[in-house]
Every structure is written in structure tokens, then in C-alpha cells.
Write a structure and sequence with these properties.
Strand content: 15-25%
Low-confidence stretches: 1-21, 38-73
Largest sheet: 7 strands, mixed
Oligomer: single chain
CATH class: Alpha Beta
CATH architecture: 3-Layer(aba) Sandwich
Number of domains: 1
Family: Belongs to the methyltransferase superfamily. Type-7 methyltransferase family.
Protein name: S-adenosylmethionine-dependent methyltransferase
Shape: globular
InterPro entries: MeTrfase_7 (IPR005299), MeTrfase_capping (IPR042086), SAM-dependent_MTases_sf (IPR029063)
Number of helices: 12
Mean pLDDT: 82
Keywords: Magnesium, Metal-binding, Methyltransferase, Transferase
Number of strands: 7
Organism: Rehmannia glutinosa (Chinese foxglove)
CATH superfamily: Vaccinia Virus protein VP39
Structural class: alpha/beta
Length: 342
């Protein structure tokens, strides 16, 4: 389970890492998300929270309602971090991974983060990292054979299918709005929330570049190849779509600006650091199996998993575009929000 933790003063802080539909492989086995996420590996390598010199004075300043930073630091503040995930998450693996000499108190808050999790006005700082892209469900129009957005033969949205992309974007916007409404009740006036979301650039060249959605759609190609070989029916592929959406920076900005409770204090588009942590084609296949394995198994069955990922690995290896991490144009969007005063 990947985690990046945010500090607070005296009351509560909240880490957001929720996965829709229990998508990721749990536990700490060889195919688990815990062992294979490139971002999890980076976090375990640096252990940011146990370095107090990295705690931002700017964040502490705002979290304490404009109190003087020097006085706050002199008070030896206490940090409480609440980890959030779906109720089926393996919290034992999470807590076993935390350093014993950590400088914060840790607890779990299971539940869907699109609804309320904490008491009213109890949250000073929230951090959502690589979570909001997950949807609670696939857009209904995408799975409806009578809808112009029916995504036949595909498992995710592509540029040439605008109706499908619009359905995903609308679902994403509605769920981000629900997330913000719940946090607005829980957060104190002037509290801060940092959001990190994977995204796509406004423009990129699919002939020479790729993004995470490009790799995801490659799974659709693999599944259709297997269906044509009789491993399962094509209708089985037609009825499956991945429940996440990677927005462009402008799309995310428009959604966030609709909120009546939060203002955008800062927004940056960052290069994707994770793309250099996967040294081989096999390593990338292992990571995707850890992240997507449960969704695929639930729909297609476990017996096809080895064959599917072997085919995926071969297709990645055969493409010079996918082999070069510099061609990966997936972005990381960082947004800092501030709770408005009621």
C-alpha cells in the first residue's frame, strides 16, 4: 500500500489513499501492490516523515490560523496521521511497514473518501496522493450497448471516442466534487489540502510518445487477441472497462474551481518521477499486475492472468516507443487547496 503522509498541529491530519473497487492486490506477496508500486519503493527509500527538517513552515503557519511559526515550533506540537482506505484494505501490512521511531501517531480510518470520514472541523491538513483518479464505478453510459458512449472492444477511453471520454470526465468531475464536499465539512477554515493526481498533457504525439492510458489500452488489445483465440467471448471484453480517469491539468482546474469551499492556492504540473523506477519491460508488467490484477481477475478469472501479462509484456517489448521512459508523457499534477472561511 503506497502512502505519503501529511502533518498537522494538535488535532488531526488525513492521508488519502483509496482504491476504487478494491483494485489493487493486497498483502505483501510477490504480486502485491505493496511490493511492486514504484511510488511505494520511492517512499520506503526516503522515509520523508522521519525527517522533521522537511516539515514546511508555510504549511504549519496556515494550519494554525496564521499563528506565528516560531511559537508553534516552540510548543513541541503533536502530529496525528489518519490513514484512509476501503474497508477491505490490509491495514496490517500498512502498519507493519511504518518505522518504529516515527514522529507521529498513526491510526486507520476505513471507508470511502467520497463521503465523511472525520468529525466536523477537525482536519487541519489533508494529503491525497495518486487516489482521486480512481472512480467508484465505470461510467454507466460506457457499458450501455444502446448508448453512443458504448466502449465496444476497448477497456478505457481513447481520443477518437469523444463520447466515451466525456462520460469518463463527467464521472470524474462528479466524484471529485463529492470528495471536496466531504472534506469541506471536516476541515477547519484556513486548513490546507494537497492533492497529487496523475494526468495527461493537453497535447502529445501518439506516434512517438505514450501515457499511462496508452499502456492501459494495450491491455484492451491483448484481451481482444485472446478473445479471438477463443479464451473468452468478445462480449466479455465489451463489458469490461477500467474505473479510473487521468485528467488534463485544465480539466482538473475547471473541476476544482467549481468548488464553493476551496480555493486553489498553487497548481503545478510535474514530470512523472515514477517512470524511471521501472528498469525493464518485465518490471512494468509486474507493477501493472499488482495494480490491476484484482480487477482483471474478478472479471476474466485468474486462469488467464499469466497468459494476459505474457502477451502484454511481448507487445511492450516489441515497441520502441514504450521501451524508452523518456517517451512517457504522463504528468503528475500537484494542487494545494485552502479551505475558505464560511
Amino acid at each position: 500500500m503506497a502512502s505519503i503522509i501529511g502533518p498537522h498541529i494538535h488535532k488531526r491530519a488525513l492521508l488519502k489513499h483509496t482504491v476504487a473497487l478494491n483494485a489493487m492486490n493486497d498483502g505483501d506477496g510477490p504480486n502485491s501492490y505493496f511490493q511492486n508500486s514504484s511510488y511505494q519503493l520511492l517512499h520506503r527509500r526516503f522515509r520523508l516523515l522521519n525527517r522533521p527538517e522537511l516539515i514546511s513552515r508555510h504549511s504549519i503557519h496556515h494550519s494554525c490560523h496564521q499563528a506565528k511559526t516560531e511559537n508553534i515550533l516552540a510548543q513541541n506540537p503533536e502530529f496525528h496521521v489518519f490513514f484512509n482506505d476501503v474497508v477491505t484494505n490490509d491495514f496490517n501490512t500498512l502498519f507493519a511497514s511504518l518505522p518504529r521511531d516515527r514522529l507521529y501517531r498513526a491510526a486507520a480510518v476505513p471507508g470511502d473518501f467520497h463521503g465523511r470520514l472525520l468529525p466536523e472541523s477537525s482536519l487541519h491538513f489533508g494529503y491525497s496522493s495518486w487516489s482521486l483518479q480512481w472512480l467508484t464505478e465505470v461510467p454507466r453510459a460506457v457499458a450501455d450497448r444502446d448508448s453512443p458512449a458504448w466502449n465496444r472492444g476497448r477497456v478505457y477511453c481513447t481520443r477518437e471516442r469523444k463520447d466515451v471520454c466525456d462520460a469518463y470526465l463527467n464521472q470524474f468531475g462528479d466524484e471529485v466534487a463529492s470528495f471536496l464536499e466531504a472534506r469541506a465539512v471536516e476541515m477547519v477554515s484556513g486548513g490546507l489540502m494537497a492533492i497529487v493526481v496523475p494526468g495527461e498533457p493537453e497535447f502529445w504525439n501518439p506516434e512517438t510518445e505514450f501515457t499511462i492510458p496508452s499502456e492501459i489500452n494495450l491491455f484492451g488489445s491483448c484481451l481482444m487477441d485472446m478473445a479471438k483465440k477463443g479464451r473468452f467471448s468478445e462480449s466479455k471484453v465489451d463489458s469490461f472497462n477500467f474505473p479510473f480517469y487521468l485528467p488534463t491539468p485544465q480539466q482538473l482546474k475547471v473541476i476544482l474551481e467549481r468548488s464553493q469551499s476551496f480555493s486553489i492556492e498553487r497548481m503545478e504540473v510535474l514530470n512523472n518521477p515514477g517512470k524511471y523506477t521501472l528498469p525493464s519491460v518485465d518490471a512494468r508488467a509486474v507493477v501493472y499486475r499488482a495494480v490491476l490484477g484484482r480487477l482483471l481477475t474478478d472479471h476474466f478469472g485468474s486462469e488467464i492472468m499469466d497468459e494476459l501479462f505474457e502477451l502484454y509484456t511481448k507487445k511492450i517489448a516489441a515497441s520502441p516507443i514504450f521501451q524508452n521512459p523518456d517517451n512517457d508523457k504522463t504528468t503528475t499534477i500537484l494542487v494545494v487547496l485552502k479551505r475558505k472561511t464560511d
